[in-house]
Structure formats: C-alpha cells, structure tokens
Specification:
alpha/beta, Rossmann fold, seven-stranded parallel beta sheet, 15 helices
Length: 376
C-alpha cells in the first residue's frame, strides 16, 4: 500500500505561480487517497483541500511577508522549512520545493519516509552562471542568486530520494552536474483550458500581434527581443508586452522600451487569457526558464509559440507544427523566425489546431496522474 504524502509549498495556496502548481499537485494526491496534509504560508484559497490544509499562524505569516518585502527570501524559505519539518508524521513521505525543504527532507528521512523535491529551474549552479553571464553582457554587475541559496539547493538535491523537474532542459542540467539519472523524474506542467481558450471573435485587421508575458527582464530575454524586433518588425506587426520591470533593471530596460517601435507596454496584466486570445503568437526568448507555463497557456488559446532553446516548454513544441524554437543568443535566428511569422501568417494560423491539441494533452489532470505514479 502506498504511503501518505505530506506536501509543502511556501507560496499562498492556489493564488498563482508556485502556489497554484502546488494546489494542483496536492489535489491529485487527495483524489488518489494519498494526501496526508498540504502545508503553505497561507491557505485561504485551498477550496476542496481545506480539510487537509495547514497554514502558518497569523504572526508567523506576517513575519514571512515582511522578510519578502525586505528581499530576505533565503531567510523566508529557511523559516518556512523549519515550521514544516516539525509537522511531518513518521513514515509519511514528503514532497516539497527546492530552497525551502532541507530541514523537512531530514525530518522525513529520520521518520522512515521518502523525500521528493521539486526543482522548477535548471541546476542552481548553472542557473547562477547563466544569469550572471547575461547581466554582465549588459554591463550589470548583479549576482542573481546568493551563494547560500545555491549551496542549500545543491544539498537538497543530494539529500532527497527523488528530484522532480518539469522539462528535459532541467533534467539535462542535473545530469551534466553529475546527478544519477535514476534519481530524476520529469513531470511537465499543465494548463487550465477552461480559463485559457481561443477567442470566438473574428479579427478586424491584418496586424500580426505577438504577445510576451512575463517579467520585462534580462532573464526573460527582453533586451535581445527588443533589439531584434526594432530591426525586423514592419507596419503589419505589433508586440504586446505584459509584465513589470525588476527594480534593479529599470535603468537598463526603460530606455530600450522608449526606443522600441510598434511595441505596447501593458504593465501587469490582470487578464492574461484575454490578452492571449487577442494575439496571433507568443514569443518567449528567455535566457533561462525551467518550463515557462505561459507557453501552454498560449497554446490553449490556439496560439503558435516562438521560444528559445533555454525554455523548458520547448519540449512541447514540434518545429513547424505548433511553433518554432531558436538557439538562445542567436539574434539572426530569432530575427529569421520572427520574420517567418510576419511573412507566413496563413501558415502560422494553420498551427492553431496543433497548438490546441498540445494544450489538451498537457492538462493538470495528466500532470497529477504522473505525480501520483512517480510517488508510488
């Protein structure tokens, strides 16, 4: 008989990002009769999992929020982890997220359980190198990841029984870092097709609209995109940017946005499904993205996608069928593929059904079933 699983995620449950991924995972464990409890910083949106949800006490939650506002994310994750570690029952398995699970892994193993840790990005030492290289390329002497955080994530991967990753990109990064293949499991993310669906309204113009959704940042490849876009975009094309600029990058990103042509900067977008449904394709040229959930969200709206090979969701792209992939850092390749969409709008529109079918195959139910299987 399979053991119960104590699931842990430090973000508010079912309120976007990691917290929503965690909610889908815990719901799958619940439906499979495997959920012991789900611990989160805040559980007000737990819904059907309310009876299993364990939220932090109000004073502790306020303290963690203050640490986040101060940018002390390492301390935030450390304190959350210690709170969770004190609640794990003997012989229960543990499933948590990297950088917030080291004490919990130890508590689980001491109680005779197995420890699963989820890593959403490439191996942390490689992630740090890639991002430092990108910042340096644009003259920014920033260290995107603390040495303590990297060491902690390396230790978690070594201590866990299984490391769960969302893409082959992340899997390869761990294999190249020396981790045994038998310790790695790939579980691609899912998409909510009831919220993300194609528009029923007919387009009234011939402008080809690209959407970019995510932080307007160096990590997401925005400087390269803007540079190439200004060079190749004609009057029959537009680019909508939905997202905010990290504070430390504003001095670099804002001048580029002011110089960009045929670009609409939307800021934070409260209606991503509506934005995607009004566009013709998604572009995500990230320097590193362990998966990139917006890729599946765009496909669920019927959009083909253009992504770099450092976006893990490139696993979901069949070249020329539901999107295109280009080598990160190759501006000529990015320019060529952008122009392909402009020059071949009918062929791009013909990718719609393949994109929708890809999204249907990547439901949250399928994600949950794979999670149940790998934790057996």
């Amino acid at each position: 008989m399979s053991r119960k699983v104590f699931y842990s995620v430090a973000q508010p449950l079912n309120r976007g990002g990691m917290g929503s991924i965690g909610w889908h995972a815990a719901r799958a464990l619940f439906r499979g009769g495997r959920l012991a409890a789900v611990a989160s910083a805040e559980v007000g949106a737990a819904g059907s999992l309310r009876g299993f949800a364990r939220g932090m006490p109000w004073p502790a939650r306020k303290g963690l929020a203050a640490l986040n506002r101060l940018g002390a994310h390492h301390a935030h994750d450390l304190l959350f982890d210690r709170w969770v570690a004190n609640q794990i029952e003997k012989e229960a398995d543990f499933y948590g997220w990297m950088n917030m699970s080291l004490a919990s892994i130890a508590a689980c193993r001491a109680g005779g359980g197995r420890a699963f840790v989820d890593r959403g990005s490439v191996e942390p030492r490689l992630q740090r190198k890639w991002l430092r290289d990108e910042y340096a390329r644009f003259g920014l002497l920033l260290d995107p990841m603390s040495a303590r955080g990297v060491e902690r994530m390396v230790a978690e991967a070594e201590a866990a029984d299984v490391v769960v990753v969302p893409s082959r990109l992340v899997e390869r990064s761990y294999l190249e870092a020396g981790h045994p293949s038998e310790k790695l499991r790939v579980n691609p993310l899912g998409v909510e097709t009831e919220s993300f669906r194609p528009s029923e309204e007919a387009r009234r113009d011939r402008v080809f609209r690209f959407a970019f959704v995510g932080q307007l940042s160096i990590q997401k490849g925005l400087p390269d995109l803007l540079s190439v876009w200004t060079r190749v975009a004609g009057h029959g094309a537009s680019l909508a940017l939905a997202g905010t600029i990290p504070a430390l990058e504003r001095a670099h990103i804002e001048p580029m946005l002011r110089r960009a042509r045929r670009v609409e900067t939307l800021g934070h977008c409260a209606d991503v499904p509506g934005l995607l449904a009004r566009c013709d394709a998604l572009v995500l040229p990230s320097a590193q993205d362990g998966f990139g959930l917006v890729v599946l969200e765009a496909m669920a709206c019927g959009l083909p996608v253009l992504v770099s090979d450092r976006v893990g969701a490139a696993d979901c792209v069949t070249e020329g069928k539901n999107g295109r992939v280009f080598p990160f850092g190759d501006d000529d390749a990015l320019a060529d593929r952008l122009q392909w969409f402009f020059k071949e709008p009918a062929r791009a529109a013909g990718m719609r059904e393949a994109a929708l079918e890809t999204a249907r195959r990547h439901s949250w139910e399928a994600y949950g079933q794979r999670l149940l299987d790998l934790t057996q």
